[in-house]
């Protein structure tokens, strides 16, 4: 779907970052370069990309990341915030007139999805308790009026159109008459569908500008097809100069477009995206939320909360202590046990791993993982003498046999535990170098 590729690329970039502890300037540069490439490949306009990556870079090299418990997480958050920013920041709701009717004019190229949007908007407004009317001011395209009537019937909303057979009317007059009619008939919202062309042309712009002048709309919504790629920015600028608009509607977000150009529109024109269209049906439509769209684009699963949980399970101070112990070779089985208990305290390991994006591949491992393992580990370690816990090298055959008997386990169990401890100790070294902790007993994730 739209943004699919961009999402994958960004996820990949962050995945690499996730294995880092402290970030060096070159880590940040590498990440920013990847983000820049991913955005450009997704058709986001160069100016927007430049500004975006410059901001991310500046913040990622700054103190907020330096001081963060988990720098990678902080960078993901920065990218998310900046993405919300280029998408317009706060959600911008449709504005209604103080004195009805509210007039909403739709503008955009032919095929952008204006007529479909008119129906979607009408249906949505009815649900919100309004009494809209649709206006057919597209008198250029032969079947535009009929199409609007079909859509109106589907939405259960009346359509104001020139009488059939009266020939080509004057769209400006139709629009003006429609507003007057809405006042009399107590329709509180007037939605004006206007003509589009395949490309931007002066005459169409003039007509749209005249309709705007004649009806003084509360909102002029520029409908842009997410599939049109880099042309989106040029088209948006042309409409901004020719008619100007108060908000943007992204249509066809369900398609296979790269979508980045549509993302640039809000940033380039300074006009907010108000709605998103995601299909041909009248219900495939929703108010646009910059934050939700950003999360969708980043598509990191619950990566943020995963990082957070791993962080809690393995808090910084403890990690530092362990690192110290490793440095002095004093990481013991007691520490190992404490870590396991900490992990258990952090909640279900399965649940935590389930939040990893792409956890599907982990299913086997998840199913094999048995939390009773921790209980068995406790039993074995508690059957050891303090000296053995401090120095597992003492554990010869007879000691292992004694421990197995004492804990009700087999020697194989004891051997496996010692092996896992050694793996964990190795893993702790990675952590000490600033890597991500893995789960003892899970093997590498
Ligand atoms: P207009 O010329 O701007 O009025 O565009 P239309 O409303 O006639 O839409 C052009 C085509 O795009 C039609 O076939 C619509 O069914 C289709 N369309 C409109 N919006 C969407 C959308 O959000 N997703 C998809 N997949 N198709 C859409």
TrEMBL record:
It comes from the Bacteria. It catalyses: GTP + H2O = GDP + phosphate + H(+). It is found in: Cytoplasm. Residues 272-285 form the SRP54-type proteins GTP-binding domain. Keywords: Cytoplasm, GTP-binding, Hydrolase, Nucleotide-binding, Ribonucleoprotein, RNA-binding, Signal recognition particle. GTP binds at residues 108-115, 193-197, 251-254. GO terms for molecular function: 7S RNA binding; GTP binding; GTPase activity. The keyword Lipid biosynthesis does not apply. Its main location: cytoplasm. Its EC number is 3.6.5.4. GO terms for biological process: SRP-dependent cotranslational protein targeting to membrane. GO terms for cellular component: signal recognition particle. Transmembrane segments: none annotated. Belongs to the GTP-binding SRP family. SRP54 subfamily. Composed of three domains: the N-terminal N domain, which is responsible for interactions with the ribosome, the central G domain, which binds GTP, and the C-terminal M domain, which binds the RNA and the signal sequence of the RNC. Part of the signal recognition particle protein translocation system, which is composed of SRP and FtsY. Involved in targeting and insertion of nascent membrane proteins into the cytoplasmic membrane. Binds to the hydrophobic signal sequence of the ribosome-nascent chain (RNC) as it emerges from the ribosomes. The SRP-RNC complex is then targeted to the cytoplasmic membrane where it interacts with the SRP receptor FtsY. This is Signal recognition particle protein. It comes from Agromyces tardus. The gene is ffh.
